[in-house]
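We treat protein structure as text, and this decision shapes the records that our systems exchange. Because each token names a local backbone shape, the row as a whole describes the fold. An entry from our holdings is shown next, in its original layout:
>
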Amino acid sequence: MKNISIPIAFFAGILTFAQSEKDTLKSKEKAIEGVTVTVRKPTIESKVDRTVFNVANSSILAGNTTWDVLRMTPLVSIDNNDAIKAEGESVTVYINDRKSVFTGKELKEYLKTIPADNLMKVEVITSPSSRYEATGSVINIVLKKREDEGIKGSVTFNNRQNTKNSQYTNLNLNYHKKNFTQTLIGSYGDYTSVQSNSSTQTFYTDNSTTFRNSKTISRSRNPSLSSTSEFELNSKNTIGVILEYYQSNSLSTSDADGLKNVKGDFNNSYTQNQNSDGLNRNFGTNLFYKWYDKEKNKILDINLGSNYYGESNNSYFLKNMINATTPNLIEAQEIGVLTDTENRNYYVKVDYTQPLGKSGGNFEVGGKMDFNNNVIPNSLYGNMLSGLSSRDVFHYEDNINSIYANYSKTFFKKLETRVGLRYEYIDYKIRQDVAGTSRKDSYGKLLPNILLKYSFSDKYDLSLTYNKNIWRPWYAEFNPFMIPNSDGFYTRGNISLDPNPSDRLYMKLGILKKYFISARYMFTDQDYWTDYITEGNKTISQESNFFGKVHKYYVFANTNQTFFKNKFTVNLGVGWYYIDNSDFNRRNHLGTDNSYVNYLSASTNLSYTNLFNKNINLSAWLEVSNQNNGNSITNKPNIFHNISATKIFPKTQMEVSLQLMNIFKRPNYDATTYVQSGTFRNSSKWDWYGFSLSFVKRFGNQKVKENTKTDVEKSGGGGK
């Protein structure tokens, strides 16, 4: 109770202070005549703490979803398990500065329901301020805000041909009348995907090698609906409510086979068929109040919200085994898995920003209370339940309370500074009803961050940032209930997982406002990574704690250039990574020679606007990506690419877009995971390739303005 009362008192203090400020202000209105100047932002902006991908007028939006655009965002990579990373590190995703409650495949399905046509920009915040929760990097997805009178919107029809065919349809409506704005977005996707996997498993103890292959075909139907209502009470006060709903009906089939040899001799083999169906639903609400004094740059932002996520899934596995001892006998193994998930999240968040004194300083303070209650019942049925729990219910509850403060100021008109401190306290409980396994824990962390930027002139500047971060395990990673996988493995969580703290130092040099050279150092001495454990004839994949020092070094060079009267834009980035795993490998007895890992990464975004003055926009994207992840080392890089052409018909407000995705090389993930017991090489091919054809019909006035959390954000990155 004490831990909750402190943030409540803190919130009350913020509200009292903000209200007293509000009561002393007098309403002022000034009519200013001016000249409207249209300035087109560069496609990529490199700021001191973030890289901004301005996509509002890009041809890549037509027919795509937010998930598709995220794949093409600089510094961002997405692996075959749909994990989003920035500069190779895990991230937290925000939408309009509101933290998403989803991760992994759930986040992917949700972002696929948001049409890219609604995007203003994507911010990759590599050095987040204390405003953001205790993680590594942050990706903030900023949506458009339409405020012209009347009704306007767009309708999108998309057909995509990969291995199988998929369709996507979206209706986007916006109504604005005086002080009231209403946005309504509805979408429906029918997606079919195919993924092939192969793995080679080697154990040191018995000198055994197991080969596995699998192919999975999945289909999902995803309807979604979201509504945003916003009402300006007066020039300073705004209230609103956001309602979001999405649903996914999924079906999948999988075929797998495996062969195990011991010391070169046959031991066993199997074939396996899997059929799965599932239904998941999400309903989210957010009630917000914003007080904004534009003249004095004072902002009070209050958010109250809740999120519900429910998923039911039924998977059936039929496995035929042949053993060396009985080669003429085929043993049929049947296992069914019933899973029902219910997650509830409630939160209250308060942020307040104001200038401090007459010296140009800016002060920001805020906090958040977050409550999570997750329940996952699991049941197994079939004739092969030996060594497995037939049923259990997993519970995870937590309460996270946080407060933060940021102070930023510019000295001598050359030195920009930001100093921040965040405190987070978590109290969580984990338990299983049947097995009786339980854990109760709590801890608090102080997380400082510092930003410095010195401008030698208007053409040269140097910045330095420091952040202390902590990455917490996701609730599902704690769940110790063991279930079979489509490839013949088993998987389970680990109730003993610990958080991963890290220290990050970041430096960036800006030259002529076009060239940027940055360097980053990150240090950690504990993390949790993928582990493989053998119990009887079962190979089990789970997350485990690994202790040991890891040093990561990163150098990145980036430039953004425009040619032909700003019609042709080129953004090019090249990075070099060097990872020292020597202490980590030695302490965990990992049998790898790759104690020092180094590799190159590169990406480029090209766009040409109004080709031949015929309203034809061209864009291309290319990325060379390595997905090293703790004790998993990439064997060869991935080369992603996308080429698109969009024809705009101004009179009818129609667009036609053709995209070619990875047509020259199909994406293939290939990495080796090193654990104490052996090595696991995993390779997968997924069908993000082919072509996509989109038709977009717009109506009404499409003029938009940025919808940022705080309009006092500084160009140098010190405001948020």
Summary: Helices lie at 2-24, 66-71, 104-111, 582-587.
